[in-house]
Amino acid sequence: MPKVGRREEILAIACRLFSQKGYHGTTIRDISDACGILAGSLYAHINSKEDLLYEITERGARAFLESLRPIVESEQTAVEKLRQGLKAHIRVIENNLEAATVFFHEWRALSEERRAKIQAMRDEYEALWARILSEGVEKGEFGDLDQKFARLLILSAGNWLYQWYSPGGKLSADEIADRFVDMMLGGFQK
């Protein structure tokens, strides 16, 4: 059985390369060279390049779900769930910038079966956001908004962050989320 530490190192290197060069632009040789091992030896630790991509994207999907689910299930107001949810979303990206890049860009390179599993997790995540918006409308915290487009706006703002966010930048992830939510609520509230 391969050492867990070595597998994690290979995953981290593959993630970095996939985020820089894309999944299709990264070869097994690129990964093995970056790991300092022969390409053939890499297969002692992995079954395929796609296995690496799947594990990276599955971990990403799980991180988003695990960060949002407790917020949605909490007793907070819908406004606070929106604020905390977007903060959680941005923190996942902040803490996993390379993996977020791979998650958002490369998951479609997976086989049909694996892509369907990731899509199901993405759908579950969107459904959690839909619950927040529906609750806010039902309780009068949000105006009569188009919930589908509100959800798309939230996810578009959050998902695009990996393109321009700098962890050492002027604003923290929480400050960015607060600014986004304040702007959105200006249009969402009565």
Description:
It is a single chain. With 190 residues, the protein is mainly alpha-helical. 75% of the residues lie in helices and 0% in strands. Helix 4 (49-72) packs parallel to helix 7 (112-138). The longest helix is centred in the middle third of the chain and has 27 residues, at 112-138.
Report the CATH C-level class. Mainly Alpha
Could you say which structural class the secondary elements and strand pairing correspond to? mainly alpha
Order of helices and strands: HHHHHHHHHH
The main pleated sheet reads as:
none
Integer count of domains: 1
Weakly predicted, low-confidence segments: none
Number of alpha- plus pi-helical segments: 10
Give the strand content: under 5%
CATH topology: Tetracycline Repressor, domain 2
Query: What is the number of E strands?
Result: 0
The rounded distance between the terminal residues' Cα atoms is 59 Å
CATH level-4 homologous superfamily: Tetracycline Repressor, domain 2
Cα-atom radius of gyration: 19 Å
Gross morphology:
elongated
* CATH A-level architecture: Orthogonal Bundle
Briefly characterize the structure:
InterPro entries: Homeodomain-like_sf, HTH-type_TetR-like_transc_reg, HTH_TetR, KstR2_TetR_C, Tet_transcr_reg_TetR-rel_C_sf. By secondary structure, the protein is an all-alpha fold.
